[in-house]
Amino acid sequence: MTGTENQAEGRLIAGRYRLERRIGGGAMGVVWLAKDELLDRTVALKHLLLTAGLSAEEAEHARKRSSREARIAARLQHRHAITVFDVADDDGMPVLVMEYLPSQSLAEVLTARGPLPPEEVARIGAHAASALAEAHAAGIVHRDVKPGNILLGEDGTAKITDFGISRATDDGTLTGSGAFAGTPAFLSPEAARGERPTAASDVFSLGATLYAIVEGRFPYGDSDNQMALLYSAAAGRVNPPQQAGPLTAVLDRMMRVDPEERPTMAEVATELEKLASPTPEERRRSRALVWAGAGAVVLVAAVVTTLLLVNNGSGGQNASPPASSAQQPAPSSQQQAPPPTTGRTTSSSSSAPPSSTSHPSTSAATTTDPVQFMRDYYAAMPGGISAGWAKLSPAMQGQVGYPYYQRYWSEMSSFQVVSGPQLVGANTVESTLDFVQRGQHFRERHRVTLIESDGRLLVNSDSSSNA
Protein backbone atom coordinates (compact mmCIF):
# COMPACT_ATOMS: atom_id res chain seq x y z
CA MET A 1 0.00 0.00 0.00
CA THR A 2 1.38 3.37 -0.94
CA GLY A 3 1.93 6.30 1.38
CA THR A 4 -0.90 8.20 -0.29
CA GLU A 5 -3.28 5.31 0.40
CA ASN A 6 -2.17 5.13 4.03
CA GLN A 7 -2.85 8.84 4.44
CA ALA A 8 -6.33 8.37 2.91
CA GLU A 9 -7.33 5.73 5.46
CA GLY A 10 -9.56 7.17 8.14
CA ARG A 11 -10.37 10.28 6.12
CA LEU A 12 -13.95 11.55 6.24
CA ILE A 13 -15.67 12.38 2.93
CA ALA A 14 -18.75 14.61 2.66
CA GLY A 15 -19.00 14.66 6.44
CA ARG A 16 -20.27 11.07 6.71
CA TYR A 17 -18.22 8.45 4.79
CA ARG A 18 -15.13 7.22 6.70
CA LEU A 19 -12.54 5.48 4.48
CA GLU A 20 -11.30 2.18 5.93
CA ARG A 21 -9.24 0.33 3.33
CA ARG A 22 -8.77 0.01 -0.41
CA ILE A 23 -10.56 -3.02 -1.84
CA GLY A 24 -10.18 -2.59 -5.60
CA GLY A 25 -9.65 -0.34 -8.54
CA GLY A 26 -9.79 0.02 -12.28
CA ALA A 27 -8.86 2.30 -15.11
CA MET A 28 -11.06 5.12 -13.89
CA GLY A 29 -11.01 4.87 -10.11
CA VAL A 30 -10.10 3.32 -6.77
CA VAL A 31 -12.70 1.51 -4.68
CA TRP A 32 -12.63 1.83 -0.89
CA LEU A 33 -14.42 0.06 1.92
CA ALA A 34 -16.02 2.81 4.00
CA LYS A 35 -18.42 3.38 6.86
CA ASP A 36 -21.49 5.55 6.43
CA GLU A 37 -21.48 7.11 9.88
CA LEU A 38 -24.90 8.70 9.41
CA LEU A 39 -26.73 5.44 8.62
CA ASP A 40 -24.23 3.16 10.38
CA ARG A 41 -23.69 0.85 7.42
CA THR A 42 -20.74 -0.40 5.38
CA VAL A 43 -20.51 0.94 1.84
CA ALA A 44 -18.11 0.92 -1.08
CA LEU A 45 -16.79 4.24 -2.39
CA LYS A 46 -15.45 4.66 -5.90
CA HIS A 47 -13.11 7.62 -6.12
CA LEU A 48 -12.12 8.97 -9.52
CA LEU A 49 -8.48 8.71 -10.50
CA LEU A 50 -7.10 11.36 -12.80
CA THR A 51 -4.25 10.34 -15.07
CA ALA A 52 -1.07 12.27 -14.40
CA GLY A 53 -0.33 15.06 -16.85
CA LEU A 54 -3.91 15.82 -17.85
CA SER A 55 -4.64 19.33 -19.00
CA ALA A 56 -7.27 21.35 -17.18
CA GLU A 57 -9.72 20.60 -20.00
CA GLU A 58 -9.00 16.87 -19.85
CA ALA A 59 -9.35 16.80 -16.08
CA GLU A 60 -12.73 18.51 -16.33
CA HIS A 61 -13.74 15.98 -18.98
CA ALA A 62 -12.86 13.14 -16.57
CA ARG A 63 -14.90 14.73 -13.79
CA LYS A 64 -17.91 15.02 -16.07
CA ARG A 65 -17.52 11.43 -17.08
CA SER A 66 -17.50 10.32 -13.45
CA SER A 67 -20.62 12.36 -12.69
CA ARG A 68 -22.28 10.89 -15.75
CA GLU A 69 -21.38 7.38 -14.59
CA ALA A 70 -23.10 8.10 -11.30
CA ARG A 71 -26.26 9.38 -12.98
CA ILE A 72 -26.46 6.32 -15.20
CA ALA A 73 -25.73 3.79 -12.48
CA ALA A 74 -28.26 5.38 -10.11
CA ARG A 75 -31.00 4.82 -12.69
CA LEU A 76 -30.61 1.05 -12.39
CA GLN A 77 -32.18 -0.63 -9.37
CA HIS A 78 -32.03 -4.42 -9.62
CA ARG A 79 -31.27 -7.25 -7.21
CA HIS A 80 -28.45 -8.45 -9.46
CA ALA A 81 -26.81 -5.06 -9.97
CA ILE A 82 -24.69 -3.19 -7.44
CA THR A 83 -26.82 -0.31 -6.15
CA VAL A 84 -25.53 3.28 -6.20
CA PHE A 85 -26.75 5.02 -3.03
CA ASP A 86 -25.30 8.49 -3.37
CA VAL A 87 -22.90 10.75 -5.23
CA ALA A 88 -20.67 12.62 -2.77
CA ASP A 89 -18.32 15.52 -3.40
CA ASP A 90 -14.67 15.31 -2.39
CA ASP A 91 -12.89 18.59 -3.12
CA GLY A 92 -14.67 18.95 -6.42
CA MET A 93 -14.33 15.29 -7.38
CA PRO A 94 -17.48 13.14 -7.53
CA VAL A 95 -17.39 9.95 -5.46
CA LEU A 96 -19.84 7.10 -5.99
CA VAL A 97 -21.28 5.63 -2.81
CA MET A 98 -22.30 2.06 -3.58
CA GLU A 99 -23.66 -1.08 -2.00
CA TYR A 100 -20.88 -3.20 -0.52
CA LEU A 101 -21.05 -6.89 -1.43
CA PRO A 102 -18.54 -9.24 0.24
CA SER A 103 -17.52 -11.04 -2.92
CA GLN A 104 -14.98 -12.01 -5.52
CA SER A 105 -15.10 -11.01 -9.14
CA LEU A 106 -15.52 -13.82 -11.66
CA ALA A 107 -11.97 -13.07 -12.80
CA GLU A 108 -10.74 -13.83 -9.26
CA VAL A 109 -12.96 -16.92 -9.01
CA LEU A 110 -11.59 -18.25 -12.30
CA THR A 111 -8.01 -17.74 -11.10
CA ALA A 112 -8.73 -19.50 -7.79
CA ARG A 113 -10.97 -22.34 -8.96
CA GLY A 114 -10.38 -22.72 -12.67
CA PRO A 115 -13.26 -23.26 -15.12
CA LEU A 116 -16.70 -23.57 -13.51
CA PRO A 117 -19.28 -26.26 -14.37
CA PRO A 118 -21.86 -25.30 -17.01
CA GLU A 119 -24.84 -25.37 -14.63
CA GLU A 120 -23.15 -22.93 -12.23
CA VAL A 121 -22.11 -20.69 -15.13
CA ALA A 122 -25.71 -20.70 -16.39
CA ARG A 123 -26.94 -19.57 -12.96
CA ILE A 124 -24.38 -16.76 -12.77
CA GLY A 125 -25.17 -15.74 -16.33
CA ALA A 126 -28.92 -15.69 -15.63
CA HIS A 127 -28.35 -13.30 -12.71
CA ALA A 128 -26.20 -10.92 -14.76
CA ALA A 129 -28.48 -11.14 -17.81
CA SER A 130 -31.57 -10.24 -15.78
CA ALA A 131 -29.90 -7.05 -14.51
CA LEU A 132 -28.58 -6.14 -17.95
CA ALA A 133 -32.00 -6.75 -19.49
CA GLU A 134 -33.48 -4.19 -17.10
CA ALA A 135 -30.64 -1.78 -17.92
CA HIS A 136 -31.36 -2.18 -21.62
CA ALA A 137 -35.05 -1.53 -21.00
CA ALA A 138 -34.01 1.74 -19.33
CA GLY A 139 -31.88 2.69 -22.34
CA ILE A 140 -28.55 1.87 -20.68
CA VAL A 141 -25.78 -0.08 -22.42
CA HIS A 142 -23.00 -1.33 -20.11
CA ARG A 143 -20.25 -1.56 -22.77
CA ASP A 144 -17.71 -3.34 -20.55
CA VAL A 145 -19.25 -6.65 -19.51
CA LYS A 146 -16.38 -8.93 -18.45
CA PRO A 147 -15.47 -11.33 -15.61
CA GLY A 148 -13.93 -8.50 -13.60
CA ASN A 149 -17.25 -6.64 -13.56
CA ILE A 150 -19.44 -9.48 -12.30
CA LEU A 151 -19.21 -10.09 -8.55
CA LEU A 152 -20.01 -13.43 -6.94
CA GLY A 153 -21.24 -13.09 -3.36
CA GLU A 154 -20.59 -15.50 -0.52
CA ASP A 155 -24.10 -16.94 -0.95
CA GLY A 156 -23.58 -17.51 -4.68
CA THR A 157 -25.51 -14.42 -5.77
CA ALA A 158 -24.03 -12.69 -8.81
CA LYS A 159 -24.23 -8.92 -9.31
CA ILE A 160 -22.96 -6.81 -12.17
CA THR A 161 -21.08 -3.64 -11.40
CA ASP A 162 -19.03 -0.81 -12.87
CA PHE A 163 -21.14 1.03 -15.37
CA GLY A 164 -18.15 3.35 -15.65
CA ILE A 165 -18.16 3.39 -19.42
CA SER A 166 -21.87 2.75 -19.81
CA ARG A 167 -23.91 4.76 -22.20
CA ALA A 168 -27.47 5.93 -21.80
CA THR A 169 -29.10 6.19 -25.21
CA ASP A 170 -30.35 9.69 -24.45
CA ASP A 171 -27.02 10.92 -23.05
CA GLY A 172 -24.05 12.30 -24.95
CA THR A 173 -20.90 10.25 -25.26
CA LEU A 174 -17.91 11.30 -23.19
CA THR A 175 -15.45 8.59 -24.06
CA GLY A 176 -13.24 10.95 -26.00
CA SER A 177 -12.41 11.32 -29.67
CA GLY A 178 -10.96 8.24 -31.29
CA ALA A 179 -11.22 6.14 -28.12
CA PHE A 180 -13.12 2.90 -27.75
CA ALA A 181 -14.51 1.58 -24.49
CA GLY A 182 -14.31 -2.02 -23.36
CA THR A 183 -11.86 -4.87 -22.91
CA PRO A 184 -10.64 -6.42 -26.22
CA ALA A 185 -10.91 -10.02 -24.98
CA PHE A 186 -14.68 -9.58 -24.49
CA LEU A 187 -15.59 -6.97 -27.11
CA SER A 188 -18.25 -7.61 -29.71
CA PRO A 189 -17.05 -7.46 -33.35
CA GLU A 190 -18.92 -4.22 -34.03
CA ALA A 191 -17.50 -2.51 -30.92
CA ALA A 192 -13.99 -3.68 -31.83
CA ARG A 193 -14.45 -2.13 -35.27
CA GLY A 194 -15.28 1.20 -33.67
CA GLU A 195 -19.02 1.08 -34.29
CA ARG A 196 -21.49 2.32 -31.71
CA PRO A 197 -22.09 -0.39 -29.06
CA THR A 198 -25.71 -1.40 -28.55
CA ALA A 199 -27.63 -3.71 -26.25
CA ALA A 200 -26.69 -6.52 -28.67
CA SER A 201 -23.03 -5.70 -27.98
CA ASP A 202 -23.63 -6.39 -24.28
CA VAL A 203 -25.21 -9.73 -25.24
CA PHE A 204 -22.04 -10.70 -27.09
CA SER A 205 -19.79 -9.57 -24.23
CA LEU A 206 -21.80 -11.53 -21.66
CA GLY A 207 -21.55 -14.57 -23.93
CA ALA A 208 -17.78 -14.08 -24.13
CA THR A 209 -17.63 -13.73 -20.33
CA LEU A 210 -19.56 -16.96 -19.74
CA TYR A 211 -17.41 -18.67 -22.38
CA ALA A 212 -14.27 -17.66 -20.47
CA ILE A 213 -15.43 -18.97 -17.10
CA VAL A 214 -16.75 -22.28 -18.44
CA GLU A 215 -13.83 -22.88 -20.83
CA GLY A 216 -10.98 -21.34 -18.81
CA ARG A 217 -9.75 -19.44 -21.88
CA PHE A 218 -10.63 -16.37 -23.91
CA PRO A 219 -13.00 -16.80 -26.87
CA TYR A 220 -10.51 -15.00 -29.15
CA GLY A 221 -7.54 -17.04 -27.93
CA ASP A 222 -5.15 -16.64 -25.02
CA SER A 223 -2.91 -13.78 -25.97
CA ASP A 224 -1.35 -10.91 -24.04
CA ASN A 225 -1.22 -8.87 -27.22
CA GLN A 226 -4.16 -6.49 -26.91
CA MET A 227 -3.95 -5.41 -30.55
CA ALA A 228 -4.05 -9.04 -31.68
CA LEU A 229 -7.13 -9.60 -29.53
CA LEU A 230 -8.72 -6.47 -30.93
CA TYR A 231 -8.05 -7.69 -34.48
CA SER A 232 -9.61 -11.09 -33.70
CA ALA A 233 -12.56 -9.39 -32.04
CA ALA A 234 -13.17 -7.16 -35.06
CA ALA A 235 -13.24 -10.28 -37.27
CA GLY A 236 -15.55 -12.10 -34.86
CA ARG A 237 -13.12 -15.00 -34.74
CA VAL A 238 -14.34 -17.12 -31.81
CA ASN A 239 -12.76 -20.50 -31.09
CA PRO A 240 -15.46 -23.20 -30.71
CA PRO A 241 -16.23 -24.04 -27.05
CA GLN A 242 -15.27 -27.50 -25.88
CA GLN A 243 -16.41 -27.65 -22.23
CA ALA A 244 -19.65 -25.68 -22.38
CA GLY A 245 -21.96 -28.70 -22.66
CA PRO A 246 -25.60 -27.52 -22.53
CA LEU A 247 -24.42 -23.90 -22.75
CA THR A 248 -22.92 -24.41 -26.20
CA ALA A 249 -26.01 -23.48 -28.23
CA VAL A 250 -26.90 -20.33 -26.29
CA LEU A 251 -23.28 -19.14 -26.31
CA ASP A 252 -23.20 -19.60 -30.06
CA ARG A 253 -26.28 -17.42 -30.52
CA MET A 254 -25.03 -14.78 -28.10
CA MET A 255 -21.73 -14.50 -29.98
CA ARG A 256 -23.05 -14.30 -33.53
CA VAL A 257 -21.08 -11.88 -35.70
CA ASP A 258 -24.25 -10.17 -36.89
CA PRO A 259 -25.87 -8.29 -33.97
CA GLU A 260 -29.31 -8.84 -35.51
CA GLU A 261 -28.91 -12.60 -35.10
CA ARG A 262 -28.27 -12.43 -31.35
CA PRO A 263 -31.08 -12.95 -28.84
CA THR A 264 -32.17 -10.07 -26.63
CA MET A 265 -30.76 -9.96 -23.11
CA ALA A 266 -34.20 -10.80 -21.72
CA GLU A 267 -34.29 -13.93 -23.90
CA VAL A 268 -30.80 -14.84 -22.72
CA ALA A 269 -31.86 -14.50 -19.08
CA THR A 270 -34.84 -16.81 -19.62
CA GLU A 271 -32.82 -19.47 -21.40
CA LEU A 272 -29.95 -19.40 -18.91
CA GLU A 273 -32.41 -19.68 -16.03
CA LYS A 274 -33.80 -22.86 -17.60
CA LEU A 275 -30.31 -24.29 -18.03
CA ALA A 276 -29.44 -23.39 -14.43
CA SER A 277 -32.50 -25.22 -13.09
CA PRO A 278 -32.97 -28.31 -15.27
CA THR A 279 -35.84 -30.69 -14.63
CA PRO A 280 -35.02 -34.10 -13.10
CA GLU A 281 -35.49 -35.64 -16.56
CA GLU A 282 -33.05 -33.16 -18.10
CA ARG A 283 -30.53 -33.93 -15.35
CA ARG A 284 -30.85 -37.68 -16.00
CA ARG A 285 -30.40 -37.12 -19.72
CA SER A 286 -27.36 -34.93 -19.12
CA ARG A 287 -25.74 -37.55 -16.87
CA ALA A 288 -26.47 -40.24 -19.44
CA LEU A 289 -24.74 -38.20 -22.11
CA VAL A 290 -21.68 -37.69 -19.94
CA TRP A 291 -21.27 -41.38 -19.19
CA ALA A 292 -22.08 -42.45 -22.75
CA GLY A 293 -18.70 -41.20 -23.93
CA ALA A 294 -15.35 -40.86 -22.29
CA GLY A 295 -16.49 -38.10 -19.94
CA ALA A 296 -17.82 -34.57 -20.17
CA VAL A 297 -14.72 -33.14 -21.84
CA VAL A 298 -14.83 -35.73 -24.60
CA LEU A 299 -18.53 -35.14 -25.12
CA VAL A 300 -18.14 -31.41 -25.52
CA ALA A 301 -15.15 -31.87 -27.76
CA ALA A 302 -17.43 -34.10 -29.79
CA VAL A 303 -19.60 -31.08 -30.49
CA VAL A 304 -16.79 -29.46 -32.40
CA THR A 305 -16.04 -32.62 -34.33
CA THR A 306 -19.63 -32.91 -35.36
CA LEU A 307 -19.61 -29.44 -36.68
CA LEU A 308 -16.30 -29.71 -38.43
CA LEU A 309 -16.83 -33.05 -40.03
CA VAL A 310 -20.17 -32.71 -41.55
CA ASN A 311 -19.58 -29.76 -43.78
CA ASN A 312 -16.16 -31.04 -44.55
CA GLY A 313 -17.42 -33.24 -47.17
CA SER A 314 -17.79 -31.56 -50.45
CA GLY A 315 -15.16 -33.58 -52.10
CA GLY A 316 -11.94 -34.07 -50.20
CA GLN A 317 -10.24 -31.01 -51.60
CA ASN A 318 -13.39 -28.94 -51.91
CA ALA A 319 -15.76 -29.91 -49.15
CA SER A 320 -18.24 -27.79 -47.24
CA PRO A 321 -16.99 -26.28 -43.96
CA PRO A 322 -18.72 -26.06 -40.62
CA ALA A 323 -21.20 -23.35 -39.96
CA SER A 324 -22.30 -21.67 -36.80
CA SER A 325 -24.56 -23.69 -34.57
CA ALA A 326 -28.15 -22.70 -34.27
CA GLN A 327 -31.50 -23.78 -32.98
CA GLN A 328 -33.19 -23.32 -36.29
CA PRO A 329 -32.49 -25.89 -39.04
CA ALA A 330 -31.47 -24.55 -42.43
CA PRO A 331 -31.78 -26.17 -45.87
CA SER A 332 -29.11 -28.79 -46.43
CA SER A 333 -29.41 -29.62 -50.09
CA GLN A 334 -27.52 -26.64 -51.45
CA GLN A 335 -23.88 -25.70 -51.10
CA GLN A 336 -24.85 -22.17 -50.07
CA ALA A 337 -28.08 -22.70 -48.22
CA PRO A 338 -29.60 -19.48 -46.88
CA PRO A 339 -29.02 -19.10 -43.14
CA PRO A 340 -31.93 -18.98 -40.72
CA THR A 341 -33.43 -15.55 -40.35
CA THR A 342 -32.43 -15.02 -36.75
CA GLY A 343 -31.01 -16.76 -33.77
CA ARG A 344 -33.68 -15.25 -31.55
CA THR A 345 -36.37 -17.82 -32.24
CA THR A 346 -36.05 -21.20 -30.66
CA SER A 347 -36.97 -23.60 -33.38
CA SER A 348 -38.77 -26.83 -32.92
CA SER A 349 -36.84 -28.59 -35.65
CA SER A 350 -39.10 -29.13 -38.61
CA SER A 351 -37.06 -32.11 -39.72
CA ALA A 352 -36.40 -34.97 -37.37
CA PRO A 353 -32.80 -36.14 -37.08
CA PRO A 354 -32.10 -39.29 -39.04
CA SER A 355 -31.12 -42.37 -37.14
CA SER A 356 -27.46 -43.28 -36.99
CA THR A 357 -28.03 -46.12 -39.43
CA SER A 358 -30.49 -44.56 -41.87
CA HIS A 359 -28.05 -42.97 -44.31
CA PRO A 360 -24.77 -44.87 -44.19
CA SER A 361 -22.13 -43.96 -46.74
CA THR A 362 -21.05 -47.22 -48.33
CA SER A 363 -17.33 -46.54 -48.08
CA ALA A 364 -17.32 -44.81 -44.68
CA ALA A 365 -19.68 -47.39 -43.17
CA THR A 366 -17.42 -50.31 -43.96
CA THR A 367 -13.86 -49.01 -43.82
CA THR A 368 -11.88 -49.39 -40.62
CA ASP A 369 -9.07 -47.17 -41.94
CA PRO A 370 -9.35 -43.85 -40.03
CA VAL A 371 -7.71 -41.82 -42.82
CA GLN A 372 -9.99 -43.25 -45.51
CA PHE A 373 -12.99 -42.73 -43.24
CA MET A 374 -12.16 -39.05 -42.91
CA ARG A 375 -11.63 -38.67 -46.66
CA ASP A 376 -15.03 -40.22 -47.24
CA TYR A 377 -16.58 -38.11 -44.53
CA TYR A 378 -15.35 -34.85 -46.01
CA ALA A 379 -16.33 -36.00 -49.50
CA ALA A 380 -19.96 -36.56 -48.45
CA MET A 381 -20.70 -32.89 -47.87
CA PRO A 382 -22.23 -30.33 -48.29
CA GLY A 383 -25.36 -32.05 -49.55
CA GLY A 384 -25.02 -35.12 -47.35
CA ILE A 385 -25.92 -33.74 -43.95
CA SER A 386 -28.07 -36.77 -43.17
CA ALA A 387 -25.23 -39.11 -44.13
CA GLY A 388 -22.78 -37.07 -42.10
CA TRP A 389 -25.08 -37.15 -39.08
CA ALA A 390 -25.12 -40.95 -39.30
CA LYS A 391 -21.32 -40.97 -38.94
CA LEU A 392 -21.40 -39.38 -35.49
CA SER A 393 -21.28 -41.34 -32.27
CA PRO A 394 -24.49 -41.46 -30.18
CA ALA A 395 -22.79 -39.32 -27.55
CA MET A 396 -22.01 -36.62 -30.10
CA GLN A 397 -25.49 -36.75 -31.62
CA GLY A 398 -27.05 -36.36 -28.21
CA GLN A 399 -24.81 -33.46 -27.29
CA VAL A 400 -25.11 -31.53 -30.55
CA GLY A 401 -28.71 -32.07 -31.62
CA TYR A 402 -29.74 -32.26 -35.25
CA PRO A 403 -31.02 -28.66 -35.68
CA TYR A 404 -27.71 -27.32 -34.34
CA TYR A 405 -25.76 -29.65 -36.60
CA GLN A 406 -27.80 -28.80 -39.68
CA ARG A 407 -27.51 -25.03 -39.15
CA TYR A 408 -23.80 -25.22 -38.46
CA TRP A 409 -23.01 -26.71 -41.86
CA SER A 410 -25.60 -24.93 -43.95
CA GLU A 411 -23.96 -21.54 -43.34
CA MET A 412 -20.67 -22.50 -45.01
CA SER A 413 -20.11 -20.98 -48.44
CA SER A 414 -16.77 -22.64 -49.27
CA PHE A 415 -14.57 -25.34 -47.81
CA GLN A 416 -11.23 -26.94 -48.60
CA VAL A 417 -9.04 -29.56 -46.96
CA VAL A 418 -5.61 -28.03 -47.47
CA SER A 419 -3.58 -30.79 -45.78
CA GLY A 420 -4.29 -34.30 -44.55
CA PRO A 421 -6.12 -36.25 -43.42
CA GLN A 422 -3.19 -38.01 -41.76
CA LEU A 423 -2.97 -40.45 -38.87
CA VAL A 424 -1.35 -38.91 -35.78
CA GLY A 425 -2.35 -41.46 -33.14
CA ALA A 426 -4.56 -44.44 -32.48
CA ASN A 427 -7.79 -43.70 -34.37
CA THR A 428 -6.81 -40.01 -34.38
CA VAL A 429 -6.66 -38.09 -37.66
CA GLU A 430 -5.44 -34.54 -38.27
CA SER A 431 -6.45 -32.23 -41.13
CA THR A 432 -6.06 -28.55 -41.95
CA LEU A 433 -9.31 -26.97 -43.07
CA ASP A 434 -9.84 -23.70 -44.92
CA PHE A 435 -13.39 -22.36 -45.03
CA VAL A 436 -15.64 -19.33 -45.25
CA GLN A 437 -18.51 -18.97 -42.79
CA ARG A 438 -20.92 -16.04 -43.02
CA GLY A 439 -18.39 -14.16 -45.10
CA GLN A 440 -15.53 -14.73 -42.61
CA HIS A 441 -12.46 -16.69 -43.71
CA PHE A 442 -10.91 -19.25 -41.32
CA ARG A 443 -8.05 -21.74 -41.48
CA GLU A 444 -7.89 -24.31 -38.67
CA ARG A 445 -6.08 -27.50 -37.78
CA HIS A 446 -8.46 -30.21 -36.54
CA ARG A 447 -7.58 -33.38 -34.69
CA VAL A 448 -10.43 -35.88 -34.80
CA THR A 449 -10.76 -39.00 -32.67
CA LEU A 450 -12.83 -41.92 -33.94
CA ILE A 451 -14.40 -44.86 -32.16
CA GLU A 452 -15.49 -48.21 -33.55
CA SER A 453 -19.05 -49.41 -33.01
CA ASP A 454 -20.50 -52.57 -34.55
CA GLY A 455 -17.68 -52.70 -37.07
CA ARG A 456 -18.13 -49.04 -38.12
CA LEU A 457 -16.01 -46.00 -37.35
CA LEU A 458 -17.80 -42.99 -35.84
CA VAL A 459 -16.69 -39.44 -35.07
CA ASN A 460 -16.40 -39.00 -31.31
CA SER A 461 -14.28 -35.91 -30.56
CA ASP A 462 -12.45 -33.01 -32.13
CA SER A 463 -9.94 -30.39 -31.04
CA SER A 464 -9.07 -27.36 -33.12
CA SER A 465 -6.45 -24.64 -33.28
CA ASN A 466 -5.54 -21.85 -35.66
CA ALA A 467 -3.41 -23.09 -38.51
TrEMBL record:
It comes from the Bacteria. Keywords: ATP-binding, Kinase, Membrane, Nucleotide-binding, Serine/threonine-protein kinase, Transferase, Transmembrane, Transmembrane helix. ATP binds at K46. Pfam families: Pkinase. PROSITE patterns: PROTEIN_KINASE_ATP (PS00107), PROTEIN_KINASE_DOM (PS50011), PROTEIN_KINASE_ST (PS00108). SMART domains: S_TKc (SM00220). InterPro entries: Kinase-like_dom_sf, Prot_kinase_dom, Protein_kinase_ATP_BS, Ser/Thr_kinase_AS. GO terms for molecular function: ATP binding; protein serine/threonine kinase activity. Its EC number is 2.7.11.1. Residues 319-368 have a biased composition (Low complexity). Coiled coil: none annotated. The chain crosses the membrane at residues 288-310. Residues 314-368 are annotated as: Disordered. PANTHER family: MITOGEN-ACTIVATED PROTEIN KINASE KINASE KINASE 20-RELATED, SERINE_THREONINE-PROTEIN KINASE NEKL-3. This is non-specific serine/threonine protein kinase.
